[in-house]
Each structure stands twice: as C-alpha cells, then as structure tokens.
Amino acid sequence: MAVKPSRTEKKIQYDQKLCRLLGEHSQILVVGADNVGSNQLQNIRTGLRGHSVVLMGKNTMMKRSVRIHAETTGNKAVLNLIPLLVGNVGLIFTKGDLKEVSDEVAKYKVGAPARVGLIAPTDVVVPPGNTGLDPSQTSFFQALNIPTKINKGTVEIITPVELIKKGDKVESSAAALLSKLLIRPFSYGLIVQSVYDNGSVFSPQVLDLTEDDLVGKFAAGISMVAAMSAALSYPTLAAAPHMFINAYKNVLAVAVTTEYSFPQAEAVKEYLKDPSKFQVAVAPVAAERKNENEETNGGGEEQREDGEDEEDDMIFGLFD
Q1: Are 88 and 201 part of one and the same domain?
Q2: Domain hosting residue 200, numbered range
C-alpha cells in the first residue's frame, strides 16, 4: 500500500510544480473560479491539454511559490503576479495564442439555477408567454407582482418582467418561481481577470483589440503629438508636415501682398492677377460634365416634353 505524502511533502511538490511552470511559460492567464465545479474544471483541463496547463491552489501557497521562484532564478518580473492572487483564482500557463486560449476557456460555461442568497451576476428577466403551470400557481406570480392571465387552463405571463437585478441577492420566492419555470438564468466558468506576458500585466480587454483598433489608437496618438508640437512650436516628425504647410502659407501671404516672389508663389500670383485664366481652365471641365449628364439622362427631357404635350391634349379634350 502506497504511503500518502504528508502535508509538508505536498507543499514541496506544489512549489516544485509551480516553479517549473513559471520557468517554462512566459504567458499566464489569471482566472476567477467562483462557482466552478470539479467536473467542469476537469473538462476545461481536457480542452486545453497540449498547449496549456491549469493550476489551482491556495493563494498563500501560490504567492510563496512565486517568491521562491523569484529568489531562486532572479526573475523579479514574476512578482507582478502576487497582487493578482486575490480571491478564488487560478493560473493558466500557456504557450499558445492568448486570445485563442481565452476564447477556449469561455466555451466551458455551465448553466446554473438561481439559488437562494446567491448574488446575481446578471439581470434576470422573465419572458412573456405560456408557463405551462396550472392556475393554482398564480400565488408565486402575485407575490412577485408579475402580471398574468389564464389562457386555456394555464398561467400566461403578459409582459416581460425584470425579476432579479445584477448584484442583488436571490430571494426564496424568485428562486422557487425560476425553478418551476425550469429557467437556469446564470452561467459559470473560469473568467479571465488579468493577463501576464513576459513580466507585463494588462487587462483581458486588450486581447479583443483588432488591427484596426490598434491603427486607430496609433493615429490618435500621432494627432495628439502633432497638435502639442504645433502648439509649443517644437518640431517633431509628426508635426513637421503641418509646420511646413503653415510656413508656406505665411510666406505665400507675404508674397501675395508685396513684390516679393518665389517659384511656388508664381502660379498663385498669376491667378490672382488674371482670374479669367482660372475660369477658362474650369469651363471645359464643366462643359464635359454637362454632356455626360445629358448622355446619362438619355433624352429624358424629350420624353418629358412629349408627355407634357399628351397631358395638355387630354386636358383640352375634356373641355372641348
């Protein structure tokens, strides 16, 4: 018969396992595990097998193992994990894509009934429709101020009703009603709370950013740098094009109001002296657009005129 390891030996084994995982992986998801059962956790481990490892444990043990690993290897970056180990949390060590692993974890959510005294994680709305309950069950609906009517010998809910609000405790009457309606309003699973990547810690919302989002944020940052540089008259690569254009405008304004000139101002001064040249250049373009419009209409004016003539004939014919 095998001898069971003592508590001290279990702690040593846990420290060794966690330190080994910290040494082998640079990407870690910190997940909340409230209301997650053992079978559900086993299914998650099976689904992530091959590229990720799920490790649960007491927060004090995990913090101690992280400190041991930091002291042994000199990797102080892992100490950033310690403030994240609060509450019922676990660690997912992965070498795969963080976004894909996070999406895979989100698939393993299990529906759960509304238990009495539980803090509702979401709003619960009872939909309208036939409940299948006999009229003797109307007391539940009356206690919760849910409008109902009797239809074909069963209770029917008339309008949707917000039964439980997020953050409220589930009362016994609400839990009994949802149980009778066979509604399992809540779902539980591992929830990614933080992401650790090579010493950096960031929110899981970052994983949902697309390339377009990053380009937009980068463009917004460049715009802010350009605006600040222009306001301070401090040259930067982002503000240089705007500074050159503004300088050109200033010099052009001086050239237009004085006899001073330079090659880039000659064309502007020429147009200002003789605007007809500009109109001659625009006229062919306008004429060409007019011809295109007439061709597109395909003689619509003639058809309209013919139609008007026929209309006139009909009107005069009525009074003849």
Answers
A1: yes
A2: 10-109+189-208
Q: What are the CA-CA distances from residue 30 to residues 89, 98, 208, 309 (Å)?
A: 7, 12, 16, 81
- Which pLDDT score, from 0 to 100, does residue 195 have? 93
Q: How far apart are CA 301 and CA 54, in angstroms?
A: 76
Residues 238 and 203 in one domain: no
Count of CB atoms within 10 A of residue 245's CB?
10
CA angle 305, 309, 310 (to 5 degrees): 120
Give me the count of residues in the chain: 320
What letters, b where the CB count within 10 A reaches 16 and e where it falls short, cover 71-91? Answer: eeeeeeebeebeebbeeebbb
What is the per-residue pLDDT for 279? Answer: 63
| Residue 295: count of CB within 10 angstroms of its CB | 9
| Cα(255)–Cα(268) distance, integer angstroms | 10
Indicate if 127 and 83 belong to the same structural domain: no
Q: What is the pLDDT of residue 9?
A: 87
Cβ count within 10 A of residue 126: 22
Whether residues 92 and 197 share a domain: the answer is yes
Q: Between the CA of residue 81 and those of 48, 103, 105, what are the distances in Å?
A: 22, 22, 20
Q: Is residue 295 domain-resident?
A: no
Could you tell me which residues come within 8 angstroms of residue 297 by beta carbon, excluding any fewer than 6 positions away?
A: none
- Residue 196 has a pLDDT of 93
Q: Specify whether the CB–CB gap between 91 and 97 falls below 8 A.
A: no
Residue 231 in any domain: the answer is: yes
Please check whether residue 275 is in contact with residue 266, taking contact to mean a CB–CB distance below 8 angstroms. Answer: no
Q: What is the CATH number of the domain that holds 194?
A: 3.30.70.1730
Residue numbers in the chain where pLDDT is lower than 50: 300-308, 310-320
